Amino acid sequence: MRSTMELTRHDRAILREMQRDAGLTIGALADKVGLSPSSTQRRLQRLRDEKIILRDVSIVEPRSLGASVTLLVELELERDRPELLPSLHHWIARTPDVQQAWCLTGRGDYTLVVVTASIDTFDALADRMMADNPNIRKFTTSVVLKQLKRSLEVPV
């Protein structure tokens, strides 16, 4: 849903700073954007109420939790089984190793970002994925050798 809220330069500054570090105190954020703490708090709450800021999260290093393998998984689906899409979407949503998923145009129908402990762990996940989702015709997997950038920042 798109907000109809007009963004001021201060709103944009708040968004830039919050995307970089959502853990800033209101006082520190106010100093960075040149507003009083009370004005900053009001604007921040309005950005949340308008669903411009969806949530605040912490970015965790996967390797620190034993998830050292990242894979990009491209799914191709059967064209004549659209009634099975809700089941696939539910499977994706409830599978913790799937960090991100996109429905696409082009060669593949979906791309998943999977972070897991090992290739063996992914192999078991892939077996479950195929067994649980008869709509998947085939999948291809690319192993990430090196991550060059990780960001969810939206240009403001």
Describe the structure.
- This protein has 156 residues and is an alpha+beta fold.
- The chain has two domains: 9-49, Orthogonal Bundle (Arc Repressor Mutant, subunit A); 62-143, Lrp/AsnC effector binding domain/regulation of amino acid metabolism (RAM) domain (Alpha-Beta Plaits), CATH 3.30.70.920.
- The chain has helices at 9-20, 26-33, 37-49, 85-94, 119-132; strands at 69-77, 98-103, 110-116, 136-143.
- A four-stranded antiparallel β-sheet has the order 2-3-1-4, covered by helices on one side.
- Strand 2 (98-103) and strand 3 (110-116) form a beta hairpin.
- It is elongated and about 55 Å long.
- The mean pLDDT is 95.
CATH architecture call of the largest domain: 2-Layer Sandwich
Helix content: 25-40%
Q: Quick one: how many beta strands?
A: 4
The helix count comes to: 5
What is the structure about, briefly put?
The protein has two domains: 9-49, Winged helix-like DNA-binding domain superfamily/Winged helix DNA-binding domain (Arc Repressor Mutant, subunit A), CATH 1.10.10.10; 62-143, 2-Layer Sandwich (Alpha-Beta Plaits), CATH 3.30.70.920. The chain contains five helices and four strands; from the N terminus they run αααβαββαβ. It has helices at 9-20, 26-33, 37-49, 85-94, 119-132, and strands at 69-77, 98-103, 110-116, 136-143.
